[in-house]
Design brief:
The protein is mainly alpha-helical. The protein contains five helices and no strands. Helix 1 packs parallel to helix 3 and helix 2 runs antiparallel to helix 3.
Length: 105
């Protein structure tokens, strides 16, 4: 029996090449991350003047950061932590919005 990869592996190394970044986005990214990355990378590359790839570097850095957050147990725990002592739910959010516009009458 084989073990499945841990998508929350804290020891995941930061991708050092575009190939590694693409592979990591495919494996650990959210659905659509890899496709969105490719689109943004192509757009930044097409818009960049020759010799100035700062926009390309920004796109790469942003997606490396996304992966770092996605594979960090601390970041994922912070996202699921209660806000103001209450756990957020879609239903609670909808009722709060209704009360804000006077829909509780």
């Amino acid at each position: 029996m084989t073990t499945q990869p841990d998508h929350q592996d804290a020891a995941l190394a930061r991708p050092a090449t575009l190939h590694e970044l693409r592979t990591a986005l495919s494996r650990y990214g959210l659905p659509g991350d890899r496709e969105q990355f490719e689109q943004m990378l192509a757009a930044a590359l097409d818009a960049s003047p020759i010799g100035d790839l700062a926009a390309v570097t920004e796109v790469i850095a942003a997606y490396r950061h996304r992966l770092a957050l996605r594979t960090s147990p601390e970041a994922m725990a912070a996202l699921t932590a209660p806000i103001g002592g209450q756990q957020w739910t879609p239903a609670a959010d909808a009722f709060a919005r209704l009360r804000a516009v006077g829909g509780d009458r």
